[in-house]
Amino acid sequence: MSVYLPTLKQLQYLVALRDAGHFGRAAEASFVTQSTLSAGIRELETLIGVVLVERTRRVVRFTPLGESIVAKARTVLREAEELTDMARAAGRPLSGEMRMSVIPTIAPFLLPQLLPRLRRDYPDLKLYLREEPSAAACEGLHHGRTDCVLLALPYGCGEVEVAPLFDDRLFLAVPGNDAADTTPLVADDIDAERLLLLEDGHCLKDHALRACEQPEARGQAMMMGTSLHTIVQMVDNGLGTTMLPQMAIDAGILDNTGVTARPIEAKNASRRIALVWRRASPRERDFRLLAEVLGAQRP
């Protein structure tokens, strides 16, 4: 008796549709036509004998069973990819494709120094980068969209292996007219009501509030910016102050501004840069080697 099983391609189409919520966008992300993707999902539904997706003109809605199968499909696809990773790991180190998410408060400041060295020393490595906030990066890691994440700790990223790289000190960025005093600040010197922070989803927001050591600061601080560069311009226009990591300052984020960075003498006035990946990944050797390369880029 023949047993017909879902194909990996059908499962990929189903997961793509769940992530995109739209047949056209899912097809585009899968590099196929919309009719091909739709036909693949219908074949899957026919194969298992149940409806997974309710289709209307405006809405794509997954049935409860469809949601459960999507969750299982993510696991199957991730484990299928790890079969290839096992073979790759047995070959040359840092070769083949690797997908890495990097948070926005690290990517523009560390990657320009990192990428040339990787291209020079590991020419067979095809590194695909994705810049996204910590929450999305960790979700993508556990769903198999990326292989590893370069982020800042402390941050709850789930069940992962962690390779700490270096500590990145935090400074308070103040407008020029507030910069006469250059002595180090203590936590009590920071006015939470003037503090401009990144939006939710960026771990630097939580690191900045930890550095303040003021429990009430979360309700008082102004969360406005979508990027550090935008917030620096706000500070330069006298709208408040903000926390900046040392790597951003060393990379020149304050160039051509009147903003001054003042050191903070506080227990939590730093963040730890780290590379994380899924536990039991067959590419652990590659990730640890990559962590060594990243750690060598310490500002």
UniProtKB/TrEMBL annotation:
Pfam families: HTH_1 (PF00126), LysR_substrate (PF03466). Keywords: DNA-binding, Transcription, Transcription regulation. InterPro entries: LysR_HTH_N, LysR_subst-bd, WH-like_DNA-bd_sf, WH_DNA-bd_sf. Residues 6-63 form the HTH lysR-type domain. Belongs to the LysR transcriptional regulatory family. This is LysR family transcriptional regulator. It comes from Sphingomonas hankookensis. The lineage of its organism: Bacteria, Pseudomonadati, Pseudomonadota, Alphaproteobacteria, Sphingomonadales.
